[in-house]
Specification:
The protein is mainly alpha-helical. The protein has one domain: Four Helix Bundle (Hemerythrin (Met), subunit A) (Up-down Bundle), CATH 1.20.120. The chain contains six helices and no strands. The N and C termini lie far apart (about 35 Å).
């Protein structure tokens, strides 16, 4: 690779971080608490579980893309991790948007079946990222 090509290709690439074994253990422990909330199966605990699951995915992404400050930027950067999982990436974005509705829209109600679907999407994303 010539000198200019090397310089320009590196400027467009984001250096990827890593998830340590301690990070993975923290993810597993936090995921167990999310499952406990889900199993209670009340609207308030499902809401909390969705919010916590989104935070957990963002935690993993913050370890993988530490130079990105915003969750949405980390999600965009993670697209490369989902090259073989396009639908899972779209499902992750959908789930993040649902979390935003829960947090920012007064009176937004999430049916329990949809909350469980969203939680499955977050779990799948964590698995693809190698965090769970």
């Amino acid at each position: 690779m010539n000198f200019l090509a090397k310089i320009f290709s590196q400027t467009n690439q984001v250096k990827k971080g890593i998830l340590t074994s301690a990070d993975r253990e923290q993810v597993r422990e936090r995921w167990e608490k999310i499952v406990e909330l889900e199993n209670i199966n009340k609207p308030s605990t499902l809401r909390e579980a969705v919010i916590e699951a989104d935070k957990l995915v963002d935690f993993a992404l913050s370890k993988l893309y530490p130079q990105k400050e915003k969750a949405a930027d980390r999600l965009r950067e993670a697209k490369s991790d989902f090259l073989n999982y396009r639908q899972d990436y779209e499902d992750l974005w959908y789930s993040h948007k649902i979390r935003n509705e829960l947090v920012h829209t007064v009176g937004f109600e999430l049916p329990s079946t949809e909350a469980k679907n969203v939680l499955d999407n977050f779990k799948r994303a964590l698995e693809i990222l190698g965090a769970l």
